[in-house]
Amino acid sequence: MAAQSIPSPPPHQSQSSPPTPASMQFESRPAISLQQPSNKKGSSKSSKLFKRFRSVFRSFPIITPMCKIPVTLHGNRPQDNHIHGGTRMTGTLFGYRKARVNLAIQENPRCLPILVLELAITTGKLLQDMGLGLVRIALECEKRPTEKTKILDEPIWTLFCNGKKSGYGVKREPTDEDLMVMQTLHPVSMGAGVIPSEAKENPDGELTYMRANFERVINSRDSETYYMMNPDGNSGPELSIFFVRIG
Predict the structure, then answer these.
(1) Where are the domains of the chain?
(2) Angle ∠(126,202,96) on CA atoms, nearest 5
(3) What is the pLDDT of residues 158-190, one digit of tens each?
């Protein structure tokens, strides 16, 4: 997928803006103009639980899976680059090359994300493996018959990359830094590249991203799949993300 340059965002006009955290310094901080998604509801009652899971998750080691299964790139591509019954969504993988990758799902690039997941795989490794061929990410959690939690509201997942257990994935509320990334990328419908940063050097490397259209297929209340769609059916990288509750 060809790299796409990001236009420098307009400077923030406020004189009293707090300083940008050293962990993610943008060339300038654009005002957030992202819209609420159509199905957005109030804040989740379990947001405190998400924070606790995330705190524990941070103590886990980063896993470097070997996602190198030989595949035929065209074997699983849907006809006409569209899946019957699917819903078109925007998916973004982003993060510092040596740090954990984040996955954000939006209704479109102009909306706030409906889902942000932090995965125990480095950004550089995942993007590298995608360049080698088909990557399948499976996120599994235990099914609890007595609860009515929506599948995308589950707080923690067991992560598999091409069948190999690769740690965990944790859902979290979008941080200010996540929203800055989404705002900076809002003119981009698909592409990959590096987001400019004020910091001259960062121990975790450059802040990179890959954005594409995904088809969301709801198989049941306990299973959803996101298929990355390549423009014009070309032979670019392929990614499928499976959410499933088992038990």
Answers:
(1) 87-245
(2) 20
(3) 999 999 999 999 999 999 999 999 999 999 999
